[in-house]
Amino acid sequence: MSAKKGWWVPPEGEDSVSDKFLRKTRESPLVPIGLGACLVVAAYRIYRLKARGSTKMSIHLIHTRVAAQACAVGAIMLGAVYTMYRDYSKRTAQDPGEK
User: Fold this and answer.
1) What's the whole-model pTM score?
2) First to last CA, the chain
3) Which of 27, 30, 52, 60 could form a disulfide with 79 if both were Cys (CB 3.0 to 4.6 A apart)?
4) Are 88 and 47 spatial neighbours (Cβ–Cβ below 8 Å)?
5) With 60 as the cut, is the pLDDT of residue 57 above it?
6) Do 25 and 32 touch, CB atoms closer than 8 A?
């Protein structure tokens, strides 16, 4: 093969990974925000691992998982509310005289 080992080029007519990620981000902007919040919470809780005191490791990890999942679920809920509001505002803009 003439391509370098480990180098991947998408087939003709397909988007690259970065193009696909940017397109998905424009379609639903709260998904990357939720993912980022999840990573921030997980990083913070891992950083605080040394100051956990007498708390068992398993309890600390469970609390970390719950906090990270709460951020992800919160972002999903905000995205759903945003989508419903956007659809409602489009519908009312199209039908200004109808009830």
Assistant:
1) 0.59
2) 65
3) 30
4) no
5) yes
6) yes
